[in-house]
From TrEMBL:
<dbReference type="GO" id="GO:0003723">
    <property type="term" value="F:RNA binding"/>
</dbReference>
<comment type="similarity">
    <text>Belongs to the class IV-like SAM-binding methyltransferase superfamily. RNA methyltransferase TrmH family. TrmL subfamily.</text>
</comment>
<feature type="binding site">
    <location>
        <position position="126"/>
    </location>
    <ligand>
        <name>S-adenosyl-L-methionine</name>
    </ligand>
</feature>
<feature type="binding site">
    <location>
        <position position="105"/>
    </location>
    <ligand>
        <name>S-adenosyl-L-methionine</name>
    </ligand>
</feature>
<dbReference type="GO" id="GO:0008757">
    <property type="term" value="F:S-adenosylmethionine-dependent methyltransferase activity"/>
</dbReference>
<protein>
    <recommendedName>
        <fullName>Putative tRNA (cytidine(34)-2'-O)-methyltransferase</fullName>
        <ecNumber>2.1.1.207</ecNumber>
    </recommendedName>
</protein>
<feature type="domain" description="tRNA/rRNA methyltransferase SpoU type">
    <location>
        <begin position="4"/>
        <end position="147"/>
    </location>
</feature>
<keyword id="KW-0963">Cytoplasm</keyword>
<keyword id="KW-0808">Transferase</keyword>
<dbReference type="GO" id="GO:0008175">
    <property type="term" value="F:tRNA methyltransferase activity"/>
</dbReference>
<dbReference type="InterPro" id="IPR001537">
    <property type="entry name" value="SpoU_MeTrfase"/>
</dbReference>
<keyword id="KW-0819">tRNA processing</keyword>
<keyword id="KW-0489">Methyltransferase</keyword>
<dbReference type="GO" id="GO:0005737">
    <property type="term" value="C:cytoplasm"/>
</dbReference>
<comment type="function">
    <text>Could methylate the ribose at the nucleotide 34 wobble position in tRNA.</text>
</comment>
<dbReference type="InterPro" id="IPR029028">
    <property type="entry name" value="Alpha/beta_knot_MTases"/>
</dbReference>
<dbReference type="Pfam" id="PF00588">
    <property type="entry name" value="SpoU_methylase"/>
</dbReference>
Length: 170
């Protein structure tokens, strides 16, 4: 079982770098759906995920259709959008025998509206106060959703505690 975060046409290198860091720390695969709004060697991207790029399983996709074709079971695809009716916590991600794919939209426009209309049952949202902000930060949203999936899966292969001895982390 693998969890996957997919970014549709990401624009901001710092968000993608931070998400790559989260992927490295959670053993989550990262999918980048082109076109990207930056060059992969962008200094901001590297700064955000500097020491982690070689630890991330990254797959590049030419477009949304290419990404969808790479998913063996579309029942395990979740579209993260503020326009969804169901909260991300309403979904059962505990089946560790299946891969889970979390698709996030472009920072400025989200996922394409015709695509969202085609798969409304796959859409999940993070509750927020829309009267104060348009949307949560993309990298924060990715972390919130992936950690909920991992929590339900009992944090597989992740260290859950550290021991302190003589004020040093062991």
């Amino acid at each position: 079982m693998t969890n996957h975060i997919a970014l549709f046409e990401p624009l901001m290198p710092a968000n993608t770098g931070n998400i790559a860091r989260t992927c490295a720390g959670t053993d989550t695969a990262l999918h980048l759906i082109e076109p990207l709004g930056f060059k992969i060697d962008d200094k901001h991207l590297k700064r955000a995920g500097l020491d982690y790029w070689d630890s991330v399983d990254i797959t590049y996709h030419a477009d949304l259709q290419d990404f969808l074709a790479s998913i063996p079971d579309l029942n395990q695809l979740y579209l993260v959008s503020k326009f969804a009716e169901h909260d991300y916590t309403d979904v059962d991600y505990s089946d560790t025998g299946k891969d889970h794919y979390f698709l996030f939209g472009k920072e400025t426009t989200g996922l394409p509206e015709p695509f969202m209309r085609k798969y409304p049952e796959k859409a999940i949202r993070i509750p927020q106060d829309d009267s104060h902000i348009r949307a949560l930060n993309l990298s924060n949203s990715a972390a919130i959703v992936i950690y909920e999936a991992l929590r339900q899966q009992q944090f597989p292969n992740l260290e859950r505690s550290h021991h302190y001895e003589n004020d040093k982390l062991k």
